[in-house]
Write a structure and sequence with these properties.
Layout (H helix, E strand, L loop, with lengths): L1 E11 L4 E11 L2 E3 L7 E4 L3 E5 L1 E3 L7 H9 L1 H6 L1 E5 L3 E4 L6 H10 L2 E9 L4 H8 L6 E7 L4 H8 L4 H15 L3 E5 L3 H5 L19 H15 L5 E4 L9 H10 L5 E3 L7 E2 L7 E2 L1 H9 L4 E4 L6 E7 L2 H7 L9 E3 L7 E8 L4 H16 L6 E2 L13 H9 L1 H9 L3 H4 L13 H16 L16 E5 L4 H6 L3 E4 L2 E5 L2 E2 L8 E4 L6 H13 L4 H4 L3 H4 L7 E4 L13
Parallel strand pairs: 1-4, 1-5, 6-9, 9-10, 10-11, 10-25, 11-12, 12-13, 13-16, 16-20, 25-26
Antiparallel strand pairs: 1-2, 2-3, 5-21, 7-8, 14-15, 17-19, 18-19, 21-22, 22-23, 23-24
Helix pairs in contact: 6-8, 9-10, 10-12
Length: about 550
């Protein structure tokens, strides 16, 4: 069937279209050139038409997500959904079920979300859980940098080629799209009683530094041509004064591509009487001058949530502030870590109020929207359901200033937010929620835009000066050319998205080294560690899309 979306105002940054009134044509699940006639026409005159939203950092599957659900049963009792189309139901807001995750994202106009912290040993479970999320394309980033085999290779001087082979093998074995580092070397050191680790501090038991871990993995990904830069959760998350570590981390990469995730949690100074302040301006200035750096913000929003992180070191500190008072930590095969802590961000709290302001400062001070992705680090800073409110804060200075005025005076006095006049445009919102994440992930050939041959993932919003109301419930959402949402109501509850992966080449000899390590040190055997495509594509729920690795990718600007 040939579809026509007629008369909408199109925001398509990857194709340079900014508010132009034009028709969008769809056939066989793809965007196609205009035709003489359509089989079905949707009149979207006066509406805004964008590609489907892409969340490049959202904890939607894996062990810690299930632990979070178990720790907050009352949250699921309070947020029970009657179901969509009479066929599926679910619950949860901070820790939504798989079904609810897909439905709620789709209502917002999102058609893809990516799990940023997949433990390799738990990859099978992560993919099966993501496969149960309807209406979304998915993908996952494999956790490396604290696993024993990588640290042994680094400490033993195995060399760039061997380490790149190990990284490539891990990506292939776990069906991952990218690599994530959490507190590089720090989670391994935590198991040897370390409770903090700075960028150039030698860590037990292998005697390597976080700087060495970062540079080694960044070089491996460049060598392999993996599109998404190393996805970095740096040292000293949440610690006052950690801005110095963040600045040093950027400098340490010496122009290598790097994506700094949930940067808000790494942008704290020590000014003021409480020794806690914003360092957003200093960090934004360095990011602005470093074209190799991209970021997502991890915006804090007020209310109940639950924090789930591979950074056990950080979560041990956070546990003292748990609300309600419960938490847990765990590990699987000593590959990484996991800490889950319920948390309530309070607007009357000096620290939480300043965290809220710091995130907005980063959004507004970093000049290039192509290097910024809109996130709350769901659910760590807030559930993804708060995105419409966040979008209004970015687009409406008056609304933002009014919200700031309600916060504690001590926090307001340490924020430069009132002096920032910038308001995001619709085109910039389309960049940070769609086109930019697609480009950063290396999936922009078919996703994140409305050009010819792109996958027809499309979101249509009714124009509304209240941007929160506008983005809270999409008027129409098409997934692969199928109408799946109308005015916030899910019409096709069992439509399934693809799973995005990369498969860089590697020397098969690395498998012998990995097999020996598994035999000597693991309970899990290699044969049960490696995933097969058929496990993900079971029942048609995870059609695999392989993205090209550009092995000649050079250092420097992310625009190259």
């Amino acid at each position: 069937m040939r579809l026509r979306l007629r008369g909408g105002r199109v925001q398509d940054p990857l194709n340079g279209i900014d508010g132009e009134v034009r028709d969008v044509w769809v056939e066989d699940g793809r965007i196609v050139p205009p035709a003489a006639a359509a089989d079905l026409t949707y009149d979207v005159t006066g509406c805004v038409v964008m590609p489907g939203g892409i969340d490049l950092h959202s904890h939607i599957g894996g062990g810690k997500v299930n632990i979070a659900r178990m720790l907050m049963p009352e949250e699921h009792r309070r947020h029970v959904h009657a179901g969509d189309g009479g066929r599926r139901c679910g619950s949860g807001h901070c820790t939504p079920s798989t079904f609810t995750t897909g439905y709620d994202y789709a209502r917002l106009g999102y058609t893809a979300a990516f799990e940023p912290a997949m433990l390799p040993g738990n990859a099978r479970h992560t993919h099966h859980e993501m496969g149960d999320i309807p209406l979304l394309d998915k993908g996952a980033y494999a956790l490396l940098g604290n696993d024993d085999l990588f640290l042994r290779l680094l400490a033993d001087g195995a060399g760039p080629a061997a380490i790149a082979d190990y990284v490539a093998w891990t990506l292939a074995a776990t069906r991952a799209l990218a690599v994530k580092i959490v507190n590089p070397g720090g989670i391994a050191a935590f198991k040897y009683n370390a409770r903090k680790l700075d960028l150039d501090e030698t860590a037990a038991p292998y005697g390597v530094t976080p700087r060495a871990v970062l540079v080694c993995l960044a070089d491996a990904l460049t060598r392999l041509g993996v599109p998404h830069p190393i996805h970095v959760h740096g040292c000293n998350l949440g610690v006052p004064g950690n801005a110095a570590t963040t600045l040093a981390t950027i400098e340490a990469l010496e122009g290598r591509p790097i994506h700094l995730t949930h940067l808000q949690f790494h942008s704290y100074g020590t000014d003021g009487p409480r020794k806690f302040s914003s360092a957003a301006a200093e960090i934004a200035a360095l990011v602005n001058g470093s074209p190799n750096v991209s970021i997502d913000v991890g915006q804090v929003m007020f209310g109940q949530t639950i924090t789930a992180s591979g950074d056990t070191m950080s979560q041990l500190r956070t546990a003292a502030h748990a609300s309600p008072k419960r938490w847990m930590a765990m590990d699987i095969e000593c590959e990484a870590g996991c800490g889950v802590v319920p948390f309530r961000y309070r607007d009357r709290s000096f620290v939480n109020a300043l965290q809220w302001a710091i995130g907005l400062e980063l959004f507004l001070l970093i000049e290039d929207p192509w290097r910024v992705a809109l996130t709350t680090d769901h659910p760590n800073g807030a559930p993804f359901g708060t995105y419409p409110h966040l979008i209004r804060l970015l687009m409406d200075k008056g609304f933002r200033d009014a919200a700031l005025a309600t916060l504690p005076k001590a926090a307001r006095e340490l924020s430069i937010l009132p002096t920032i006049r910038r308001e995001y445009t619709l085109q910039e919102i389309a960049i940070v929620t769609r086109a930019g994440p697609a480009r950063l992930l290396g999936i922009e050939r078919e996703h994140g835009h409305l050009g010819e041959s792109a996958v027809a993932d499309i979101a249509v919003y009714r124009e509304d000066p209240d941007r929160e109301r506008m983005f809270a419930a999409a008027h129409l959402v098409l997934k692969g050319g199928r109408l799946v949402v109308r005015d916030g109501v899910v019409l096709e509850p069992e439509t399934w998205g693809a799973t995005h992966v990369v498969r860089p080449g590697f020397d098969a000899a690395i498998e012998r080294r990995v097999a020996r390590f598994f035999a000597d040190h693991r309970d899990m055997r290699l044969g049960s560690f490696v995933l097969a495509d058929g496990e993900i594509e079971d029942d048609g729920r995870g059609r695999i899309v392989v993205h090209e690795c550009r092995a000649d990718r050079s250092r420097g600007s992310l625009e190259e």
